Amino acid sequence: MSLIYVLNGPNLNLLGKRQPHIYGHETLADVEASCRRLASELGHELRFHQSNREYEIIDWIHEARENGAGIVINPAAFTHTSLAILDALNTFEGPVIEIHISNVHKRESFRHHSFVSHRADGVIAGLGTEGYQLGIRRVATMLKTPKND
Ligand code: CA2
């Protein structure tokens, strides 16, 4: 059994409460519940966090360095601004999957660049909250697969 971190950036606490045409109707609590169900089906433990503060996300990445096997991260707006989150992820050795609920490439050009993508092993965008499930499944697969496969 390995520990997977699911990290969420600013404003995602409002999921399901505002802008459902962009982010859907599920709340972050709904997403957390489905992530927990899937992780336990796959035989993994899950830490699920959201913060509006950049340093808290960095601290959780540091925590994952100590005891985490993989990270699924929706950095929200920090995706497009945070070299500090990229630097933290670069110190983490396990699989990292970046996810976006919306298709950032279909939106404003300032959402097209991601600092986090420089480290992510995979990026999922535009598949709604299902992206979280897919991200967890991918991390689980990567944990089973030796690095040089
Ligand atoms: O599509 C995504 O998941 C994003 O990471 C969401 C971020 C946005 O800045 C990124 O460009 C793409 C915004 C998160 C805000 O979440 C809200 C959810 C519901 C209502 C209002 C904001």
Describe the structure.
- The chain has 149 residues and is α/β, with parallel strands linked by helices.
- The protein has a single domain, classed as 3-Layer(aba) Sandwich (Rossmann fold), CATH 3.40.50.9100.
- The chain is 36% helix and 17% strand.
- The chain is built from 5 helices and 5 strands, in the order βααβαβαββα.
- The protein has a 5-stranded parallel beta sheet with strand order 2-1-3-4-5, sandwiched between helices.
- β3, α4 and β4 form a beta-alpha-beta unit.
- α2 runs parallel beside α5 and α3 packs parallel to α4.
- It is globular and about 40 Å long.
- The mean pLDDT is 96.
- It binds ligand CA2.
- Its EC number is 4.2.1.10.
- It catalyses: 3-dehydroquinate = 3-dehydroshikimate + H2O.
- Pathway: Metabolic intermediate biosynthesis; chorismate biosynthesis; chorismate from D-erythrose 4-phosphate and phosphoenolpyruvate: step 3/7.
- This is 3-dehydroquinate dehydratase.
- InterPro entries: DHquinase_II (IPR001874), DHquinase_II_CS (IPR018509), DHquinase_II_sf (IPR036441).
CATH topology: Rossmann fold
Going by CATH, the homologous superfamily would be Dehydroquinase, class II
Largest sheet: 5 strands, parallel
CATH top level label: Alpha Beta
| Cα gyration radius (Å) | 14 Å
Count of helix runs? 5
The total strand number stands at 5
Count of separate structural domains:
1
Mean pLDDT: 96
Percent of residues in helices comes to 25-40%
What gap, in angstroms, lies between the N and C termini?
21 Å
Biggest sheet, spatial arrangement of strands: 2-1-3-4-5
Structural class: alpha/beta
